[in-house]
Amino acid sequence: MAKKGDWVRIHSVVLKAEERTAKLPDDTKACDLEQWTKGFLTEDAEIGDEVTVETVVGRMEKGTLIDDAPYYDHDYGHFVPELIEVDKVLREEMAEIGGIR
Amino acid sequence: MALAKDYASVMGRSNDIQKQALGLDYAEFETSPIAFDYDKLMTSTGYTLEEVNRVQSQFGVGNTPLLEARNITKLARKYAKPGYGARIFIKDEAANPSGSFKDRRAACAVYHAKKLGYKGVMAATSGNYGAAVASQAAIQGLKCIIVQECYDSHGVGQPEIVEKARKCEALGAEVVQLTVGPELFYSFLSILEDTGYFNASLYSPFGIAGVDTLGYEIVQQCREKLGKDPDMVVCTTAGGGMTTGTARGVRMAGCDAEIVGASIDLSGLSMASDVDFNKKSCTTGHTGFGVPYATDPDHSDVPRSAARPLRYMDRYVTITQGEIMEMTEMLAQLEGIERGPAGQTSLAAAFSLAQDLPEDAILVVSETEYTGAGKHVQPQLWFAKQNGIDVRLGDPKDEVPGKSVVLPASPALFQYKEADIDHFRQSLIKKAVKKAGVKPSDSDLEFLAEETKTDVDFVKATLEENGLL
Q: Is A16 in the B-facing interface, judged by CB distances under 8 Å?
């Protein structure tokens, strides 16, 4: 249960696939045009409910409640061994020309 | 009565919404169905170099350091013939408040919006410009909404773009995110209409005039530091604003350095494709923006774009994603500067271009960008792997966009590819005439020559060859 005033994320379909008339590749044309934004919930609701939020600029936006207390989890990725290999090559190349490495 | 907000109705009101949201009527600059007065557009809003400099200084933008990349220069010389390998300098634009040169554009756009009395600003961008507008809106006290294309149809976001969303929110903006497709413009216009905010377009005259100071500073700093002018300035080319503004500033300073545009080669990937969206390992600075915006500048979010790179560019080169990623690593490992990959497009090209120039030549790379989670060589390569891209060391010439990212097995393998700039010039000329659907007059021919940095004979030959004259 999300409470009125909670910071939440909402989702909506701007255009259904069949409503998309712009010049598009077939793969894109087969998909809905979807939209997300965040704001303060205007009334108590459950995930999946149609709700209205007030965004940080004060705009009222409708959509499906998909997340209460949304956060970012993008990161620095997993180990990429090719980068360590590149670093080694760079050190060797610099050593050959009297570089500090 | 409430206005209809369906797709067709909003798009049908596009011109009126844009006019309202820019406080500028582009009709007054049109001189024929083909031509318009570019200089009048650029001077109409009163942003001279001095005024732009005053605005930017007031809001902490510009006067960024010009750093010499001594170790990278040394390494480039290793692979050049004796006596060759220009000194490479980098304009560290990451030192701007939001971490990129886009602050220069945003400072002027937001200042202009405030001057005209708008309460907020909006921008449609998945790039650093969003953070720049959010930052300047915070500094100058306006509200801000950024609309970005961020996800594929499975809701998987490009890590580079997700990070930019985070940054915009951190700077106080609302971020509206969409899946792939040009109809983002519909959402953008619809919100613009509802809020009455200013369209802080990347392509407005004040936005581009904001970049003029970058080129001017480069020349001034070279003169102060080195007692001479730069011989070559390399600019990452996407929408064309960096190249246009930097070149204008270089010329305003009375310098005739060669202007080279550089883009990441993403040929073969469709920019509007849901599937291709996450096959890209760099989301900006690439040919998917660079070529269409150079050859048809007026398909942006304003009637006439102030970014017209073919007016200024002497050469256009491409470089691969693998070379950009390795250059980012090189900058960190050899120069002790950690920056974002897309900003290294021009540096990767410069590493190879420098080897064509004598040792006493000065080559300046016009930008760097901030780095962070998502927007960093490691997560971007990791994301590539997760999307089935073959990441390996080898010869970057073998890279196939959307299939592989090939990090040069030796720095000796960095090699820019010269694009056929005359082909792009011809493409602009053909598109402009076809779009207008009229026979060009003598003054149109002169306009098209200016648009392409060519002459009337070149324009005529192009049109005759295509049966358009």
A: no
